[in-house]
Amino acid sequence: MEEQAVSDSMRPGLKQDLDIYFDPAFADVLETWGVGNVWTEIQILMGARKGRVLDIACGTGRTYDFLQRFEDLEYHGCDISNLLIERAYARGIPESRARVADATCLPYESNSFDFVFSIGSIEHFTEAGIEAMLTECRRVCRGLGFHQFPVSIREKDEGWISPYQSYWNNSEAWWMEKFGKVYGNNIVVIPSRWSDALSRGVWFITYEPGWIL
After folding, report:
1. 140-179 pLDDT per residue, tens
2. Which 3 state secondary structure label does DSSP give 92?
3. What b/e string do you get for 125-144 counting C-beta neighbours within 10 Å, with b at 16 or more?
4. Neighbours of 211 (CB within 10 A)
5. Of the residues 22, 100, 117, 135, which has the maximum number of CB atoms within 10 A of its CB?
C-alpha cells in the first residue's frame, strides 16, 4: 500500500508546478505573450459589458491595461503568486482590487461578480484543481465565465506534458466533460487565435440561465 501511495503521488498531473509563478523572468514573459490574439479577444468579449469582472490567475495584471478603458467594467484580479500581484499593483491596479488567492478556494462572497475570466491558466491545474476552480467560478459569478486555454492540435488526449510550463494537452471533448460536471450544458465553445506547435486555443464560455452571451 505504501509503495502504491508513493507511486500515485508521482504520477504526472497530480501536483501542479508552482515554482514558475515566483520567477521574475516568467513575470516578464507574461507582459507580451498575448499580443495579437488573447488580449484582443478578451476586449471583444468584455468591451460592451457592465458590472464587476474577476480575472482569475491574473498574473501581472496585464489585461487590466486593456480593460480599464471600459468605464462600465470594474476590474478585479487574483493570483496565487505574491510576486505577480506586486507587479499588478505596480502597474496601477488598486490594492483593493487585486489580491493573492488560490483559484480553487476563492476569498470572495457568492454571486459577487457579474463575469469571471481566465486566460492560459486552467490547463495548468491538476484534475481535482480544475473541478475545484470551476466550482468556485460558478459560486462567485452570477453571470458569464470566459476561459481560454489550449487543446491538442491533434484532438487527442495527450495528457500532462512539460515543454516549458506543465499543462494538460487534451482534446476539446476531454475539457467539455470537465466543464460539464459543473455547468451542465450551459457552455459555448469558440476558437481563439492563439496557437503553437502542439495546441490550438479555445474559449469555453459558461453562462447562467437568463444571461445573454
Report:
1. 999 999 999 999 999 999 999 998 889 999 999 999 999 9
2. coil
3. bbeebbbbbbbbbbebbbbb
4. 14
5. 117
Question: Span 71-75, mean pLDDT?
Answer: 97
172-183 and 127-140 are packed helices; what angle lies between their axes, rounded to 10 degrees? 50
Q: What gap in Å lies between CA 107 and CA 185, rounded to an integer?
A: 27
**Half-sphere exposure at residue 142, Cβ-oriented, CA atoms within 13 angstroms:** 9
Cell output for 157: 488526449
Owner of C-alpha cell 476586449: 43
pLDDT at 43 > cutoff 90: yes
Sign of CA dihedral 67, 73, 74, 79: negative
What is the pLDDT at residue 37?
Answer: 97
Report how far apart, in Å, the C-alpha atoms of 40 and of each of 46, 66, 74, 138, 188 are. 10, 9, 19, 25, 19
Q: Which residues contact 23 (CB under 8 A, 6 or more apart)?
A: 83
> What is the overall mean pLDDT for the chain?
93
Residue ranges of E strands in 113-152: 113-119, 141-152
